[in-house]
Design brief:
This protein is mainly alpha-helical. The chain is built from nine helices and two strands. Helix content is 63%, strand content 3%.
C-alpha cells in the first residue's frame, strides 16, 4: 500500500507537453472538473424543469471559471500569502508559480454565479444549488492533483500508509490530499446527488446549504491530518489552522441558510 501511494505521488506533475507548452495535471483537473460539473448541473436543471440552453451553459461555465481563477488566486494572496506579495505586488499575477485557495475560489464562484444568474435569468439560489451539486467533482480532481504534485501534504505519521513526499523531508506523512479527495469529493458528491433526488426543487437554497455544512465539516476534519501552511503555521496552539478558520463560517452560514430555506412560508 505504501509503495503504491509513494509511486503515485511520484507521478510527473506535467501530463504532456506540446513544443514549449506544458499541460499540468492540475490544469486538466480544473478543466475537467468544470466541464463535468456543468454537465451534472445541466442534468439536474432539466430534471427540475429549468429551461437552460446551450448558450446559457456556456455563459454559466465562463462566469464560474473566471470567478474560480480570480477568487482562488486573490484568496491565496490574502489568506496565505503573508507579506511576500506586499513587497512584490507583480507576483500576484504569477499563477503559474502556484498558489490557489479553495475558499477564495468558492467566493469567486458565488460572485460568478450571481452574474451568470442575471445573464441567463435563472434564480440565484437555484444556480447555487446546482453549483453545490457540481463542486465535489472539481474538489475530487483537485485533491488528486495536489497529491500528484506533492503539495499540501499531511502531518508526519507512523501509519503503514504514510507517504514520503519530495520536498517535505524524509519522514512519512499522511496523504491528507487523498483524505480530502474521499470526503470532499466522493462522499460529498454521493450525499448531494441523493439529496437532489429527494429535496423539492422549490426549496431554493437547500442543496447549497447542505454543501456549505458538509464541506465545512469535512474540511475541518481533514485539517486535523494536514500540515498547516508554512507561511502561517498554526494560528492557535497546535491545532487551529487557517483552513479550519475559513471553513467554520461556512458551516454556520449553511445552517442559517438551511433554516431560512426550509422555513414555513405563509
Amino acid at each position: 500500500m505504501n509503495d503504491l501511494l509513494t509511486a503515485f505521488a511520484g507521478v510527473d506533475p506535467i501530463a504532456f507537453s506540446v513544443g514549449p507548452f506544458s499541460v499540468h495535471w492540475y490544469g486538466l483537473a480544473y478543466i475537467t472538473g468544470i466541464l463535468a460539473g456543468v454537465g451534472l448541473g445541466y442534468y439536474f436543471a432539466r430534471r427540475w424543469g429549468l429551461a437552460v440552453s446551450t448558450d446559457d451553459l456556456l455563459t454559466i461555465a465562463l462566469c464560474v471559471t473566471v470567478g474560480i481563477i480570480v477568487g482562488g488566486r486573490l484568496g491565496y494572496v490574502l489568506f496565505y500569502g503573508g507579506t511576500q506579495y506586499w513587497t512584490a505586488p507583480s507576483r500576484v499575477f504569477a499563477i503559474y508559480d502556484g498558489g490557489m485557495s479553495f475558499h477564495g475560489g468558492f467566493l469567486g464562484c458565488v460572485v460568478g454565479g450571481y452574474v451568470a444568474s442575471r445573464l441567463v435569468k435563472v434564480p440565484f439560489l437555484t444556480l447555487l444549488d446546482l453549483g453545490g451539486l457540481a463542486a465535489p467533482i472539481g474538489l475530487f480532481l483537485g485533491r488528486i492533483s495536489n497529491f500528484i504534485n506533492g503539495e499540501v501534504w499531511g502531518r508526519t505519521t507512523d501509519a503503514s500508509w504514510g507517504v514520503v513526499f519530495s520536498g517535505a523531508g524524509e519522514l512519512a506523512r499522511h496523504p491528507s490530499q487523498l483524505y480530502e479527495a474521499f470526503l470532499e469529493g466522493i462522499v460529498l458528491l454521493a450525499i448531494m446527488v441523493l439529496l437532489a433526488r429527494r429535496v423539492p426543487s422549490l426549496r431554493k437554497g437547500v442543496m447549497f446549504s447542505w454543501f456549505l455544512i458538509l464541506y465545512g465539516i469535512f474540511r475541518v476534519s481533514a485539517e486535523l491530518f494536514r500540515e498547516p501552511d508554512r507561511s502561517l503555521g498554526f494560528l492557535v496552539g497546535d491545532w487551529l489552522t487557517m483552513g479550519m478558520l475559513l471553513s467554520i463560517p461556512m458551516v454556520l452560514a449553511g445552517i442559517a441558510l438551511l433554516k431560512w430555506s426550509t422555513r414555513d412560508v405563509t
